[in-house]
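Interim report, section 4.2 (structural modelling).
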Amino acid sequence: MKDKYAMPKARISRLSAYFHELNRMQKEGRPKVVSSNLLGKTLGFSQTQVRKDFAAFGEFGKKGVGYFVSDLILHISRILGLNQKWNIALLGAVRLDKILAHNRTIIDNPFKFQAVFDNDQTKLGKLLNGVEISHIDNLEKVIQEQNIHIAIILTPELVTQKLVNRLISSGIKGILNYTPHRLQVPDNFPLVNLNLSMGLSNLCYYIRNCEEETESRLADY
Amino acid sequence: MKDKYAMPKARISRLSAYFHELNRMQKEGRPKVVSSNLLGKTLGFSQTQVRKDFAAFGEFGKKGVGYFVSDLILHISRILGLNQKWNIALLGAVRLDKILAHNRTIIDNPFKFQAVFDNDQTKLGKLLNGVEISHIDNLEKVIQEQNIHIAIILTPELVTQKLVNRLISSGIKGILNYTPHRLQVPDNFPLVNLNLSMGLSNLCYYIRNCEEETESRLADY
DNA sequence: TAGATTGTTAATCGATTAACAATC
DNA sequence: TAGATTGTTAATCGATTAACAATC
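Predicted structure of the assembly:
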């Protein structure tokens, strides 16, 4: 049964991985039913871990049969919150269209790019990632009017913390920090840091140490 | 003393975070000496964890004094492998200049963007991210001639796995997968997955569950 | 019924935290 | 010497793995 408290961070990451893989299966039309063994093998997790991950949230499978792909997708999307719409604003007029395109199959349903902010007067009103660029002065107004839930941060280091404070005052629900700069946020405020520097640093460590170690070479961030 | 085997993945990520924060301190010129307490508070880790992380690799501090920032930077860069040069190739002609600019302060020393590959004839020879675009047919040649260590993947899903196989045959040392698509690589091959889909999925989970939980809201990937 | 595969309990393994002697 | 802070040991906490009864 649900013990929705204190799920390991790693479990939530795995859930995202399952979700993506299951969607791929559904798109291909097969298999309709998947075992923990197959799903685990595909993604590099043990079958026990797969079952444990699902069992932590309920009984999603059928003994002797496996998990129905379509069921599992519904369950996981409910757990992760991908069964609702999330409106996103980008801070910093950076072209992400190619990156967004790669993520489209997963991202397009629950997420909607709704606003882009910049302080460059010459960019205002132009389209970027399919959205008109707004001036950063209108941050609070647009966030509230457009009901933005999530902000993706790609602004210069020096102005970022002030903007983050304004975002939080405006009632933003969560922040994805796409820069390597640390943000100060209230305790427990939902913040995910995703940046190239850390990814590359970690990769270098693994490259230099991969002969010696035995596992956990596949790192997700 | 060193027990270079089996360092927790989380520790390596924290090491990257320390490294970045210490570089900021050095750039500002102060403090020259930092305690585990201060460093931990700044980054949201406990002082015990900070000391444990360093002690796992050696004795970097002075009892009663703390850690010399400049020493610590050297130690960590040696551990992570940021004391050497890494040549990087990008697969998929995607403009990353803005994103690279954000990461510049950390990235610029150890990493060098050396090549960009694409299969679009019209793009060949043009500059992207400061480098001339090469045709993907020349992958093996360029990788070997330019001594590329790391590939960043931003190619379309359907062609990617073949390219990954070619990269590995060419002797690439590690791969940073910037797309949400799973790559098949040999056991223990250094691979880091870094993608927006997973970041956003995790963020959504944290947004919907942040009232109930107590800690670990700050997730790094 | 026999084979397959889940959900769960117990055992192991690993990481974090607390406490404190060592020492600058 | 007194105050500060490390490095390390022991205790706690948490996550993963192994094993197996339940059951489709």
